[in-house]
């Protein structure tokens, strides 16, 4: 039986305004609408910015937070009186009337819609002789469209891939097979990798920092290739990118991008390094979602990183760590997984007792307290113990400002190690060694390269960065279950991964209802 889904209609353009009563008869003179907007390269640039703008909305506790709570590295967390939704992600439970994953579904489709609007109007622009600019904008828009599709596909499995805007007659569109979705993703990423220049924007003060580069596209191709070929047991990326091509792309990103590892892992994270923080524009960041604290408490703006408050210590600032909601408490098993001398452990995880911090879980009403919390992305306090974002006139809930690193060079090295395994083991070993040597600050902790070694290194290097759950399910549901299942004397920490879900998250119930019975829920939910 075919599965159908009705898509939410979203605003046609980020600058649309209400029209007068006679808007059907008259061309709008002052409002910007799609029909009269796309004329100049600056118009196209505004349309491109509108697509990038959606990235900030992903940081409201979407795929990053949900997948970490579902993984073996975190529990649900938050407060004892908070809604149970986070426990449901943690324990693979489903409550249909909560419309779980609504934003994780809706936000990427908003981005896809905006990307398609721009792509369909590029030919209306008077580019003059600057056709290269048109190609650049197309490449960036197609990369972002691929990113939004991949965010959906890795969470929900079969989705509705859209390479154009749809009419009302197409609202009930079939969920496509993975081959169709990933062919669109692969073609978009390949276009971006083949048509963007060799610029490297990860430099302090660079006005283009945060924009898509050739190197980001090549790395993202590697990420999509590994997930698709592993999960679906395929030899290539939907018939579009072969294994040899994927290797060529990722090796190019390793050898020619100009990106490199920082000398000290802790310098990547503000709460882990403070005065030694390398800053957001550093050589290791291949692509990041940018944020700032300019909103100053204005809830109508989307400039701040609203994810950071989710994982910060609950119940008030403590030590250098600013206050938040205490979500996604860290599993002690992750802390224990780091070897002696691995500098990543204490740069990634707050150990309250180990750092001499008296965290009274009962007084702070912290649910699923483990003694460990996120140090990556944790907001910090000033010398007076006040959250820096508040000291600067912002709101601690919406004006945190740290960028989210979507692709770091360490991830590129580990993907290169995995993709070269079995064909160029020497290069695979070198890539793995570079990551471990930085972690231990010496060359005496190297391990022989293998799939198992690479996956464990990914867990330690990329912990709390939204990769772990998807790395588990792409290896198979039995691997995911062995890692995620947890038995504890305290029942609040008992977790059972249900293999019947195939690793996919439940669709938002609103979408199932809108389908009028034509669409069924994902398996196991």
Give a verbal description of the structure:
With 525 residues, this protein is mainly alpha-helical. 41% of the residues lie in helices and 4% in strands. It is built from 20 helices and six strands. Strands 1-2 form a two-stranded antiparallel ribbon. A two-stranded antiparallel sheet has the order 3-6. The longest helix has 26 residues, at 131-156. The radius of gyration is 23 Å and the shape is globular.
Radius of gyration: 23 Å
The N- to C-terminal Cα distance equals 18 Å
* Biggest beta sheet attributes: 2 strands, antiparallel
Query: What is the 3D form?
Result: globular
Please indicate the percent range of residues in DSSP E strands (runs of 2 or more).
Answer: under 5%
Provide the spatial order of strands within the biggest beta sheet.
1-2
Order of helices and strands: EHHHHHHEHHHHEHHHEEHEHHHHHH
Number of helices: 20
Strand elements, count: 6
Q: Determine the mean pLDDT.
A: 91
Structural class: mainly alpha
Explain briefly what this protein structure is.
This protein is mainly alpha-helical. It is built from 20 helices and six strands. The chain has a two-stranded antiparallel sheet.
Annotation keywords:
two-stranded antiparallel sheet; 525 residues; 20 helices; single chain; globular; mainly alpha
Produce the secondary structure layout.
Blueprint (H helix, E strand, L loop, with lengths): L3 E3 L27 H4 L3 H17 L5 H8 L14 H7 L10 H20 L9 H26 L15 E3 L3 H18 L18 H18 L11 H14 L13 H4 L11 E5 L18 H4 L20 H6 L6 H5 E3 L20 E3 L13 H4 L12 E5 H12 L4 H16 L10 H11 L6 H7 L2 H8 L24 H6 L11
Antiparallel strand pairs: 1-2, 3-6, 4-5
């Amino acid at each position: 039986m075919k599965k159908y889904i009705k898509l939410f209609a979203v605003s046609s353009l980020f600058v649309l305004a209400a029209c007068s009563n006679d808007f059907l008869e008259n061309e709008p003179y002052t409002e910007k609408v799609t029909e009269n907007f796309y004329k100049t390269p600056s118009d196209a640039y505004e349309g491109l910015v509108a697509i990038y703008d959606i990235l900030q909305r992903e940081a409201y506790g979407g795929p990053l937070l949900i997948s970490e709570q579902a993984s073996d590295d975190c529990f649900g967390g938050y407060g004892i009186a908070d809604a149970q939704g986070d426990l449901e992600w943690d324990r693979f439970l489903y409550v249909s009337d909560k419309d779980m994953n609504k934003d994780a579904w809706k936000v990427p489709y908003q981005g896809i819609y905006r990307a398609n609007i721009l792509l369909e109007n590029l030919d209306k622009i008077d580019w003059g002789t600057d056709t290269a600019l048109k190609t650049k904008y197309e490449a960036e828009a197609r990369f972002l469209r691929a990113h939004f599709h991949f965010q959906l596909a890795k969470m929900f499995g079969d989705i509705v891939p859209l390479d154009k805007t749809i009419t009302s007659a197409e609202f009930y569109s079939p969920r496509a097979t993975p081959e169709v979705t990933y062919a669109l993703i692969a073609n978009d990423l390949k276009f971006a990798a083949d048509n963007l220049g060799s610029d490297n924007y990860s430099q302090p003060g660079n006005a283009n920092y945060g924009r898509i580069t050739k190197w980001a596209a090549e790395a993202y191709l590697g990420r999509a290739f590994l997930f698709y070929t592993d999960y679906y047991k395929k030899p290539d990326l939907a018939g579009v990118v072969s294994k040899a091509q994927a290797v060529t792309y990722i090796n190019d990103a390793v050898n020619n991008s100009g990106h490199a590892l920082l000398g000290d892992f802790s310098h990547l994270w503000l709460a882990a390094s403070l005065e030694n923080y390398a800053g957001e524009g550093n050589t290791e960041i291949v692509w990041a979602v940018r944020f700032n604290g300019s909103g100053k408490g204005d809830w109508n703006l989307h400039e701040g990183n609203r994810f950071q408050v989710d994982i910060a210590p609950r119940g008030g600032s403590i030590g250098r760590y600013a206050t938040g909601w205490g979500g996604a408490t860290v599993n002690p098993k992750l802390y224990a997984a780091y070897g002696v001398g691995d500098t990543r452990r204490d740069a990634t995880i707050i150990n309250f007792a180990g750092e001499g911090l008296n965290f009274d879980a009962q007084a702070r009403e912290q649910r699923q307290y483990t003694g460990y919390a996120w140090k990556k992305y944790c907001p910090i306090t000033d010398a007076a113990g006040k959250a820096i974002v508040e000291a600067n006139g912002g709101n601690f809930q919406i004006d945190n400002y740290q960028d989210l690193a979507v692709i770091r060079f360490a991830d590129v090295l580990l993907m290169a190690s995995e993709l070269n395994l079995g064909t160029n083991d020497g290069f695979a070993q070198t890539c793995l060694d570079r990551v471990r040597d930085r972690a231990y600050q010496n060359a005496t902790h190297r391990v022989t390269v293998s799939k198992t070694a690479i996956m464990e290194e990914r867990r330690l290097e990329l912990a709390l960065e939204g990769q772990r759950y998807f790395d588990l399910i792409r290896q198979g549901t039995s691997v995911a279950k062995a890692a995620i299942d947890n038995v504890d004397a305290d029942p609040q920490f008992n977790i059972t991964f249900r293999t019947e879900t195939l690793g996919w998250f439940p669709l938002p119930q609103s979408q199932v209802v809108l389908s009028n019975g034509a669409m069924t829920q994902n398996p196991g939910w």
